[in-house]
């Protein structure tokens, strides 16, 4: 029984490491009423952006919408003009633009 427990606890892939995400919000103004960016980081490391990413123009319209995985752009990033019209779309895989 002890051997089984040892193998289960230390066998690769039988457990998952969990990293806490911290939500980050930046603002255009000092009173924090005009949101600039919203994203998440892993383990309090500002270089490890992870999950959905949103940047807004100062008028509140979307500027950039995308997704990060472990600090790297991953998936579609969409940019918008300040009037809300589509500017461009770019696809990334593990930080590399396709």
Question: Keywords, please?
Answer:
98 residues, 9% helix, single chain, 53% strand, mainly beta, 9-stranded antiparallel beta sheet
Draw up the topology in text.
Blueprint: H1 2-10, E1 21-27, E2 35-42, E3 45-49, E4 51-56, E5 62-69, E6 72-73, E7 75-80, E8 86-93, E9 96-97
Antiparallel strand pairs: 1-2, 2-3, 2-4, 4-5, 5-6, 5-7, 7-8, 8-9
Structure described in brief:
By secondary structure, this protein is mainly beta.
Query: What percent of the residues sit in helical stretches (DSSP H or I)?
Result: under 10%
What is the succession of H and E elements?
A: HEEEEEEEEE
Q: Give a quick account of the main beta sheet: strands, pairing sense, barrel closure.
A: 9 strands, antiparallel
Radius of gyration: 19 Å
Query: Uncertain spans, ≥5 residues at pLDDT below 50?
Result: 4-10
Tally of helical runs: 1
Annotation, overall tally of beta strands: 9
Strand content: over 45%
- Overall morphology: flat
Average pLDDT metric: 87
Oligomer: single chain
Structure description:
By secondary structure, the protein is mainly β. It is 9% helix and 53% strand. It has one helix at 2-10; strands at residues 21-27, 35-42, 45-49, 51-56, 62-69, 72-73, 75-80, 86-93, 96-97. Strands 1, 2, 3, 4, 5, 6, 7, 8 and 9 form a 9-stranded antiparallel β-sheet that branches. A hairpin with a 5-residue loop joins strand 7 and strand 8 (86-93). The termini are far apart. Residues 4-10 have low confidence and may be disordered.
């Amino acid at each position: 029984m002890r051997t089984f427990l040892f193998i289960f606890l230390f066998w690769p892939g039988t457990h998952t490491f969990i990293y806490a995400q911290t939500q980050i919000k930046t603002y255009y103004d000092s009173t924090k009423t005009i949101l600039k960016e919203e994203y998440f980081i892993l383990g309090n490391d500002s270089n490890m952006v992870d999950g959905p990413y949103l940047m807004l123009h100062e008028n509140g319209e979307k500027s950039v919408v995308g997704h990060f995985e472990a600090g790297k752009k991953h998936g579609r990033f969409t940019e918008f003009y300040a009037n809300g019209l589509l500017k461009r779309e770019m696809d990334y895989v593990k930080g590399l633009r396709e």
